From TrEMBL:
<dbReference type="InterPro" id="IPR027417">
    <property type="entry name" value="P-loop_NTPase"/>
</dbReference>
<keyword id="KW-0378">Hydrolase</keyword>
<dbReference type="InterPro" id="IPR038718">
    <property type="entry name" value="SNF2-like_sf"/>
</dbReference>
<dbReference type="InterPro" id="IPR049730">
    <property type="entry name" value="SNF2/RAD54-like_C"/>
</dbReference>
<feature type="domain" description="Helicase ATP-binding">
    <location>
        <begin position="433"/>
        <end position="590"/>
    </location>
</feature>
<keyword id="KW-0808">Transferase</keyword>
<dbReference type="Pfam" id="PF00176">
    <property type="entry name" value="SNF2-rel_dom"/>
</dbReference>
<dbReference type="GO" id="GO:0004674">
    <property type="term" value="F:protein serine/threonine kinase activity"/>
</dbReference>
<keyword id="KW-0723">Serine/threonine-protein kinase</keyword>
<feature type="domain" description="Helicase C-terminal">
    <location>
        <begin position="713"/>
        <end position="866"/>
    </location>
</feature>
<dbReference type="InterPro" id="IPR000330">
    <property type="entry name" value="SNF2_N"/>
</dbReference>
<dbReference type="GO" id="GO:0016787">
    <property type="term" value="F:hydrolase activity"/>
</dbReference>
<dbReference type="InterPro" id="IPR022138">
    <property type="entry name" value="DUF3670"/>
</dbReference>
<dbReference type="Pfam" id="PF00271">
    <property type="entry name" value="Helicase_C"/>
</dbReference>
<dbReference type="GO" id="GO:0005524">
    <property type="term" value="F:ATP binding"/>
</dbReference>
<keyword id="KW-0418">Kinase</keyword>
<dbReference type="Pfam" id="PF12419">
    <property type="entry name" value="DUF3670"/>
</dbReference>
């Protein structure tokens, strides 16, 4: 695959534990010139399980994404297990192949940092193996040749297992402490299962049938050509009888196992050799005692020790082993390997660890980095030494709480906080407060709709009451209005200042009652004064804005000084590990090393058999992520989550809006009766158009997203929906807005969506519904409110966006119920767009307060009730209120 080609990206979307894999097209269509990608995708659309099965035969794939590499890894492991199953020639379509516990652990460790990794577990892997086994059963049932021929036909490099087994077991401890036996599998005609008998029986079974005997022993013949040890056993005839082996002979056998397996011989060996459980390792325990201070720079004690398996050994005992001959040695009741090179390398690593200890204690950051790559810290080759880094009693208690917020002490919330947190939100607040007190950077990465904002506001209110420091909140400009409304609603006692531009000079050194400063990423990059303050807390919303470490914006944000830092993002881990490094370089600088060091580390993870477990172990304590699909969360959530999403007017929108207000004020002075009523209703429509996009009001067709606050909010929401490969319905009351919205969303999803409005033929509507709810991923449908509000079943979507408001709850709910209805198996999230400071916000408040709009007034009168207001009330309703300080 070419480096510049867009790759297929694997996402794991299904809910619960009954997950199925799903490979979809990337954000741009597959390169038509790339036959491999096209063929892979076409096969997926035809039969996902079959595609994955045959993907396991493909090798020498370069430049594939980590997610596709992971799927390839699963398929390759399955085919490898299949090729090493000697009984498969007898069982064929009745083969039952499930992953071993070791395979499950290896696969779980190899899951890369991609969207959906939270769903990958042992049950998911078992289900994949079950599906692949069913594919194999169907394929081999229709195949006339042997299984070996079938596998070799699809990949000639596959080493197909024969029917011969080599067994090595421990014997009584004497001159011959090991026993060897060669067996072969023969079909049990009664139940189609194989029985395993000593190889000597084959001489009797195939007496006079030299061709069949030679075929059975072909794998042994190959091994004899490559191994002097096996060659001698064959020539002497000892291979056909049980043998006693010396430790030296057993060591030769164990070292040559990979050679025998390449020849197609299946080997059974002691678990301690297979799992290396008796191997020599350097164990480093960090943080046994509580440090004098907290924070990533706090100094921790650490203790290096030597172990053979679970048994500790001294440096002197290791030096004594170095004096022995290489091979197997029986030490403390266990057989261990004496490998001079590994012993010497481990001893040198132990001495370097002791020197590091003598120079002083290590920081918490260094301790956690040591888990990631201890070899780098000790300046050794990690291939030569097995290093196990573990947490001491104090550090273990800390990380346990970070990974499980339920263990953190419950903190009371002030009565000044005007919201009731759900159970998981309260745990999130406790976790954030705990992280702040420790001085650790924290990433709040809850799924969209679980209330990250309200948890942060609860923390800010707690900080206001318990510290004298100042906090800085940075976000995309489109979210400013949303945060302002939420803070005023839930924490009205917080004194905040919003920094929209640098025209107004703010003296940050001046002591006043401001608790919180709120600004945008763009302003944070330009305002040098922010770097002069030692902030008590710096919070980033939509923290993926700093995922590119090379941009001026990211560099500026990372220069801010703070006692604690928090990053908020619904997509903390994407397909590029450099994004993860950049996020943690802000939160806990140095935890993942320098950019160069981290790049060197990730080079080792590009192989499909990569082990991501160490990296996860380091970063997971600092990331709190809960999912809507988690039963412990979903049980506490309503099935339909409605939320107001505030947008702010852009400069162009403000000019047009204020201009219309002035024009209306002038005309109202002379208008009367029907003329006045018509003027007001027409003006309402124009104000709505301006709030949607200036081009709708002006009758233009460019619709640049940066000129509309609503389009910017649409981008924020739909980028996350795109990442999760979910689907969304967007309702607008204006038919003419359906295409501009759809055109914009196509650039967000890089896939076409659907449009349904009053002009859509009735027959075509059912086709659109079927396509939207079908197997192919159609990310969005834009509907006019009246045409799409009734008679449609669109349960494929679990997001509903009301782009503009009808100001009729009944009509809006009817539209929402296109997704929230019988057949919907997911939580439905409803986003109601409101432009802050405009008529949209003011009428929304009036509806909420149910002042004169109670009962059936709205359904009966539409918007005509507004025309009954006097001129003063109308101007108060229409006048734009610029967001300011509180």
């Amino acid at each position: 695959m070419k480096k510049n080609n867009k790759e297929l990206i694997a996402y794991f979307l299904k809910q619960g534990f009954k997950l199925d894999f799903n490979i979809i097209q990337s954000r741009k269509s597959i390169d038509a010139d790339n036959s491999f990608e096209n063929d892979l995708y076409k096969k997926y659309l035809d039969n996902p399980d079959k595609m994955l099965f045959y993907f396991g035969f493909v090798d020498d794939i370069e430049k594939i994404s980590p997610s596709i590499g992971f799927l390839h890894n699963i398929a390759v492991k399955f085919i490898k297990r299949l090729s090493k199953t000697a009984d498969v020639e007898f069982t064929r379509e009745n083969t039952v192949l499930m992953p071993t516990e070791d395979e499950i652990v290896d696969l779980l460790n190899s899951v890369p940092f991609v969207v959906g990794l939270e769903f990958i577990n042992a049950n998911w892997i078992k289900n994949i193996y079950k599906n692949l086994t069913e594919v194999f059963a169907n394929e081999i049932k229709a195949y006339r040749g042997t299984v070996a021929e079938f596998l070799s036909e699809h990949n000639a490099k596959i080493n197909v297992a024969g029917r011969v087994f080599f067994h090595l077991v421990e014997n009584n401890l004497d001159a011959y402490p090991f026993a060897f036996l060669a067996t072969y599998s023969a079909e049990n005609s009664g139940d189609k299962k194989a029985t395993h008998t000593p190889l000597k029986n084959a001489l009797l079974e195939y007496k006079g049938q030299n061709d069949r005997l030679l075929k059975l022993l072909s794998t042994v013949s190959k091994a004899a050509q490559k191994s002097d040890f096996i060659s001698e056993l064959v020539e002497s005839g000892e291979l056909f009888s049980p043998l006693k082996l010396t430790s030296k002979e057993a060591y030769i056998f164990l070292k040559e196992i990979s050679l025998y397996e390449e020849c197609g011989i299946l080997c059974r060996m002691p678990d301690w050799w297979k799992k290396k459980s008796n191997a020599l390792k350097l164990s480093i325990k960090v943080g046994e005692r509580e440090p004098a201070k907290v924070g990533m720079d706090a100094l921790l004690n650490f203790n290096p020790e030597l172990f053979f398996g679970e048994d500790q050994m001294t440096e002197e005992e290791l030096r004594m082993l170095l004096a022995q001959t290489s091979g197997l040695s029986f030490i403390k009741g266990k057989w261990v390997e004496v490998d001079h090179e590994k012993l010497q390398a481990t001893l040198e690593a132990y001495e370097k660890a002791k020197q590091l200890l003598e120079r002083g204690e290590c920081t918490i950051g260094e301790a956690m980095r040591m888990q990631l790559n201890a070899a780098e810290l000790l300046d050794i080759k990690d291939d030569d030494v097995s290093i196990e880094v573990s947490n001491g009693e104090w550090l273990n208690s800390i990380t346990s709480k970070l990974k499980n917020p339920s263990l953190i002490k419950n903190i009371a919330i002030s009565d000044d906080f005007k919201a009731t947190l759900r159970g998981y939100q309260k745990k999130g607040f406790d976790w954030l407060n705990y992280m702040k007190n420790l001085g650790f950077g924290a990433c709040l990465a809850d799924d969209m709709g679980l209330g990250k904002t309200v948890q942060i506001i609860a923390l800010l209110e707690h900080v206001r009451l318990n510290t004298t420091g100042r906090s800085l909140l940075i976000m995309p400009a489109s979210l400013m209005g949303n945060w302002q409304k939420e803070i005023e609603k839930f924490a009205p006692m917080i004194k905040y200042k919003m920094i929209y531009n640098n025209k107004e000079k703010i003296d940050f050194q001046k002591i006043d009652d401001t608790n919180l400063y709120i600004t945008t990423y763009g302003m944070a990059m330009r305002l040098e004064e922010l770097k002069t303050v030692k902030w008590d807390l710096v919070i980033l919303d939509e923290a993926q804005a700093i995922k590119n470490p090379g941009t001026k914006q990211t560099k500026a944000i990372k220069q801010l000084e703070a006692s604690a830092k928090i990053a908020m993002t619904g997509t903390p881990i994407e397909n590029r590990l450099s994004d993860l490094w950049s996020l943690f370089d802000f939160l806990n600088a140095g935890l993942l090393g320098t950019a160069k060091e981290f790049t060197q580390f990730t080079q080792k993870l590009k192989d499909g058999n990569a082990d991501y477990s160490k990296l996860r172990e380091v970063v997971n304590p600092f990331i709190l992520r809960r999912l809507k699909t988690d039963k412990t969360v979903i049980a506490d959530l309503p099935e339909k989550m409605e939320m107001k999403t505030y947008a702010t007017l852009t400069k162009k929108q403000v000019v047009l809006y204020n201009g219309l207000v002035k024009e209306l004020k002038h005309k109202l002075e002379t208008a009367e009766g029907i003329e006045r009523k018509g003027l007001v209703l027409a003006s309402i429509m124009k104000f709505k158009q301006i709030c949607n996009h200036p081009d709708q009001f002006l009758g233009q067709n460019t619709f640049k997203y940066e000129q509309s606050g609503k389009f910017e909010r649409l981008l924020d929401l739909c980028e996350t929906i795109c990442e999760k490969r979910e689907r969304v319905l967007v309702f607008t009351q204006f038919k003419e807005m359906t295409k501009p919205i759809a055109d914009f969303l196509e650039t967000v999803f890089n896939r076409m969506g659907l449009i349904l409005h009053g002009g859509t033929p009735v027959k075509k509507r059912s086709e659109l519904v079927d396509k939207f709810c079908g197997d192919e991923y159609v990310p969005f449908m834009v509907l006019s409110l009246k045409a799409g509000g009734v008679g449609l079943n669109l349960t494929a979507a679990n997001h509903v966006i009301h782009f503009d408001r009808w100001w009729n709850p009944a009509v809006e709910n009817q539209a929402t119920d296109r997704a929230f209805r019988i057949g919907q198996k997911k939580n439905v999230m409803v986003h109601k767009f409101i432009t802050a400071g405009t008529i949209e916000e003011k009428i929304d408040k009036m509806i909420e307060e149910k002042s004169k709009l109670a009962g059936d007034i709205i359904p009966a009168s539409g918007e005509s009730w507004i025309t009954e207001m006097d001129n003063k009330q109308l101007m108060e309703l229409f006048t734009f209120v610029q967001a300011g300080e509180k």
